[in-house]
Design brief:
single chain; about 180 residues; alpha+beta; 2 domains; four-stranded antiparallel β-sheet; 6 helices; zinc; zinc ion binding; zinc-finger; Znf_SWIM
Length: about 180
């Protein structure tokens, strides 16, 4: 079975020769949108749910000619960008809304960590149980590696930043800032 078989209607699959898909007259009777069956859980082309949400947004255009389809997608994206820009202007902080909520949650949970200053902007953080981590706020690094991997201070880094009276939002990677959002 070809991976394309589930994405084309039966007539398209038959006219394509049952797998020999060429660029000749193939009926593109998509079942759920742009090449992905809605709810298939199969060959998703983006982060989880993005392709299905996009398919749902253009579902009314999938049986239109290509030019009309592209115009409808362009209009959808323009309206979405305007809506997102308006949401962004309402923000009172300098980081994206999901990251802001994540950092606020970590601030509440950081009370289980106990930082001790070691010098040269480095701290030893004792967590729950026997675990210990070294946090370097100058290099935005923690021994758990979460801060380096995602660009947002981990719970140990948040604990250190709060104990040294620093704003955690100033230590978040530039890609999460409002101007890049």
């Amino acid at each position: 079975m070809s991976p394309y078989e589930g994405n084309l209607s039966h007539s398209a699959w038959q006219s394509a020769g049952g797998g020999n898909i060429g660029l000749t007259s193939v009926d593109i009777g998509l079942t759920g949108g742009v090449g992905v069956e809605v709810g298939s859980g199969g060959d998703n082309f983006g982060p989880a749910g993005v392709d299905i949400a996009f398919n749902r947004a253009i579902l009314q255009a999938c049986d239109k000619p290509v030019i009309t389809l592209m115009e409808m997608i362009k209009n959808y994206l323009m309206k979405r960008l305007v809506r997102k820009r308006a949401e962004l202007e309402k923000l009172t902080h300098d980081i994206g809304p999901k990251v802001f909520k994540f950092v606020e949650k970590l601030k509440l949970e950081s009370n289980i960590c106990h930082p001790d200053y070691s010098g040269n902007y480095k701290y030893q953080v004792r967590g729950a149980g026997d675990e210990q981590y070294v946090v370097d706020i100058e290099n935005k690094a923690c021994a758990c590696n979460k801060w380096q991997l995602i660009g947002i201070p981990c719970i140990h880094g948040i604990s250190v930043l709060l104990s040294s009276i620093r704003d955690p939002s100033q230590f978040i990677d530039i890609k999460f800032k409002k101007e890049n959002f």
